[in-house]
Amino acid sequence: MRRAASSGFSLIELLVVIAVVAILAGLLLVALAGSRGAGERARCLANLRSIGTAIETYRGQHDGVLPVAPAMPRFRDDEPGLVGLLAPHLTSTMPRVGEGGDFVTAEPWLCPADSGVAPKWGVSYEYEIAAFVVALSMDQTPNLWRRAARMIEDDPSLPLVADASAGLRTSSGDPSAWHERAAGSARNAVFADGRVDWMD
């Protein structure tokens, strides 16, 4: 007696198909993760470009002087910080304290790749030029912010605002960055010349 030919899959064929599907799914997940990181960086760069444009608008209305603000905001009434000073020039809401005591922040002050700075400080970005002013103050230079404005006109490669580094440390104590690139992680920044790029 002859048996009828089976039209089904053998166990080995089924396992091969499952393995191929698993490999393809793994490749797809890797590609999606890479595109997500690129999308987050693009949104971060757009946020910084908006902040840089707002700083230039502010300078245009204040005789070329940079906004006088600390590197990270304190959100006190007597010191509005960079967020408060640029609020009239941006279409965003001010960061506010949420129910759990953490800040609720909206773009452009929130980097989509933020690793925990915004809930603590209210923003994902720090005012880099404030560090130059602190350095100038050690020289007891009068009119520090005007001098800083002249410095960025003389050297437009200076960063104005960048991804915050406050409180970001790796287990070894080194500053941490949110964005990965081929040469390692780095911070995004808007520079005095209007360029938005990596800050090494």
Written overview of the protein:
- With 200 residues, the protein is α+β, with helices and mostly antiparallel strands.
- The protein is built from five helices and seven strands.
- Strands 3, 4, 5, 6 and 7 form a five-stranded antiparallel beta sheet that branches. A two-stranded antiparallel sheet has the order 1-2.
- Strand 5 and strand 6 form a beta hairpin.
- Helix 4 (129-137) crosses helix 5 (144-154).
- The longest helix is centred in the first third of the chain and has 51 residues, at 11-61.
- The relative contact order is 0.14.
Arithmetic mean of pLDDT: 77
Describe the biggest sheet?
Answer: 5 strands, antiparallel
Order of helices and strands: HHEEHEHHEEEE
List the total number of helices.
5
What percentage of residues falls in helices of 4 or more residues?
40-55%
Which residues form runs of ≥5 with pLDDT under 50?
167-176
Q: Give the terminus-to-terminus CA distance.
A: 79 Å
Class by alpha and beta content: alpha+beta
Q: Note the overall shape.
A: elongated
Query: Approximately what portion of the residues adopt beta-strand conformation?
Result: 5-15%
Strand segment count: 7
Measured on Cα atoms, how large is the radius of gyration? 25 Å
